Protein 1
Amino acid sequence: MQKPTTNTPQLTNKIFLVGFMGVGKTTAGKRFANYLNYDFIDTDSYIEQEEGISIKEIFQSTGEAYFRKKEKEVLNQLIDNKKQLVISTGGGIGASEELMKLMNKNGKVIYIHLPFLAILNRLKDKNDRPLAQDLNDEENKQKLEDLFNKRLPIYLKASVFVDGHNLKKIGKEELCKLLLK
């Protein structure tokens, strides 16, 4: 006897969350992974664990170029991993044309967007982001906004867009619909 065939679409094994720092990728990623019964990995935490120091310390000791190289290595490792994963990427991964193409080719990429002022409000009192230091200084705010504007066109190459203000409203059913688009 032959099994009946179904037309139920299958979800991808890899779901990548991209967006600027502070938009909620890690928080949403943990929830989404729980909904889907996938494993969750935050690339920044993964790198910190591998290196034994914080991202800020990596930037200080070996520089941003080393960190970006490490991000690329980690992303490739995670793509090669056979597990079903929700991957919260560091803000720079989704801002790389090359890595965005790689993610789109190997899974579903969800861009979480917030307006710059909302991001600024979330980051202004935090000191753990190497590219977002002393945001009370106008020059530093402008540098961060310039970085946001530079990365935005690449983030927009993601396959799914989500408003960061509405992340808490996305339930399991709506997430699955987004992923099947």
Note: The longest helix spans residues 138-155.
Protein 2
Amino acid sequence: MKKGFTLVELLGVITILAILMVMATPAVLSISRKNRYNMYCKKVKTVVKAAQLYGEDRFSYLDNTITGQISENLVDGNTSCAVGGETIEYCQLTTIANLADKGFLKLEKVGKSSAETEFLDPRDFKSMLTNQVMVYIVNKRVNAQFIFNSKEDADKCTESVEVGGARYKSYYYKEGGSIKTG
């Protein structure tokens, strides 16, 4: 009597393992995709908090524009933002690169050189340095909103709030070169 498995038994086990792999792969990839989106949304929240700090540091400039006194604390001197066909006063659009340059956001080291820094989107590893954030004042309070590159990203990363029994989402995204609201 020989010890071991026959060729048919080995092929059967290999076939069963292959079927299990085919069934498990999409689930693993889906989990990985969700984790990358979650990381992206957490980065967006970090950027918004950094933008709020940036705005609070420049609050006196934005606040002085209300009373007509202009100071030199803001980079480009623009104090309004065009959004969805409307103009938001006491507002400034800034970039992630500007927040990092001003020390409100830390960039990640990339590559082998420690001098190479970047702010990467974890979904596709593309730079987010040119992404914009809107910093504005409402009722003497600094607010910030990330400007998403698509409505889909905005839908996935913004939480709805309940107002009067109904749930609403408020976000900004780019479409056709202009900023829209949703």
Note: The chain has one domain: 7-181.
